[in-house]
C-alpha cells in the first residue's frame, strides 16, 4: 500500500516539556496540520516493536505497523531543542538507523494509522482472552470504551494526546485486577526511561553541534557513571 503523504519530505520537531517530541513544521502544510501533531522517537519505536511482537502469535501482521508510520532520520540540529528530520524509505523493524516515526493520519477516518489502532485492539483482546480465564470474554468495545474514557480526561484538560501514549494504552492494556507475567515493576521502569528520550547517532558533520546541548545527548551520562564506578572499584 502506497503512502498517502508523498510530498512530506521533511519535518521540524521539538522536545516538549513532557519529554516527548512534537512537530513544529512540515514540508506539506496543505495536508498536514501541526497543531498537536506528535512523533514517536527512536526509543519509543523500539518499545512499540517489542509490544507488537507477542501479537504476531495471534495473527497480527507487523507490516500493519510499518504502513501506519512515515519514517524519518535526523538531518540536523536547529538549536533550542529543535531538530530537522528527513524522510527515509526504511522499515521500522529492519533499519539499522535510529528512526523517528510519524503516524500517517492524513485520512483520519480510514487511513493506515486508524486501521492500526483497530488491529492492535482486536489482537490485544484476543491475546488477553487466551491468557486469562475471564468469567465472560473481554470485548473490543469494552477495551475501547475504557481507554476512550481515560483519553477524554486529557482532552478536557486541553492536553494533546501523543501517539506513543495512544498506542501503549492499547498494547499495555490489562483489565483492572488482572496482571500479565511481565508486569512486575520492570515495565513501568522501562516506560520512565523511554520518556527521557534523547537523540540517536547522526551524521558526523552534525555531531559536533549537538554535543553542546545537554538535552540532546544519547547515553553520555550513563557511560560517564559507569566509568566513574569502575575507577572507584579500582581504588577500593
Your description of this structure?
The protein contains eight helices and six strands. It is of the alpha+beta class and 236 residues long. The chain has one domain. A six-stranded antiparallel beta sheet has the order 3-2-1-5-4-6. The protein is globular and about 55 Å long. The model is unreliable at 1-5, 183-197 and 209-222 (pLDDT under 50).
Brief rundown of the structure:
This protein is an alpha+beta fold. Helix content is 41%, strand content 15%.
Approximately how much beta-strand content do the residues carry? 5-15%
> What is the spatial order of strands in the main beta sheet?
3-2-1-5-4-6
**Shape designation:** globular
Rounded mean pLDDT score: 80
- Intertermini distance: 61 Å
How many strands, which pairing sense, and closed or not: the largest β-sheet? Answer: 6 strands, antiparallel
The number of helical segments is 8
* Topology order in helix (H) and strand (E) letters: EEEHHEEEHHHHHH
